[in-house]
């Protein structure tokens, strides 16, 4: 089969999305939903949705693109942006910017690196970012929800209390990470309060359309939907860079190789991706590979960049 990239000047996303959905439908081996969070385990691994949001808010979608799902670690991108906007480079004294090379909930590196997490997208790093945002706002999860509602244009976005409760009941590893970092002085707030904020932010339910729209501020180099600036152009570049190198757990190298876009996945089966200066995407399918990334989601984004020629490379 000869693959012809669509020239960006004549790009229409709907036919591309339709073709991708048809190909994904016939793809065997779609992985398994996350079973260590009981509230996620029952999702159909063959469900699939994908959306593309242009910079002006025009959205294209296919499949289950308006079906809400558990955002999980995707929200770490938005929490990072909110805190980076407030404290700037001071954040990097408390969390690194390098790929971890270890599972996203690993304790191993923290001991070797004196309680400083390797990057903001592994669980330990996200806990630090949430802690710092909580110190500055008094309600980190509430600030995150307000941002997602505003950028998506969907005032009905909300926390999923069942998912939050499920994560709380099975959150011993995250509690261990938080207590360990607190012992090094890298956590400001009481650990139980921090964990409540963290689990709530991960529980937010949103659709592909919601998240594609919410992520377009990164494609607009830090400009929000209302025209105000959340991040400087340099800070938006930083967030996109960390997404590219660290956004898909310890499979970031393979994701960059296959997809060629900044992306952030979550164990709910969603992945957001950014084409700077052009659009943002979100794809969802609950079946995960052994590294916690959506099997169909990665395949769909791979096909998108192949068919359109849109990537950062």
UniProtKB/TrEMBL annotation:
Binding site for substrate: 73, 123, 167, 174, 198, 249, 267
Record's catalysed reaction(s): L-glutamine + H2O = L-glutamate + NH4(+)
Single GO term (MF): glutaminase activity
Keyword Acetylation: yes
Gene3D superfamilies recorded: DD-peptidase/beta-lactamase superfamily
One Pfam family here: Glutaminase
Similarity comment: Belongs to the glutaminase family.
Name recorded for this polypeptide: Glutaminase
Organism of provenance: Streptomyces carpinensis
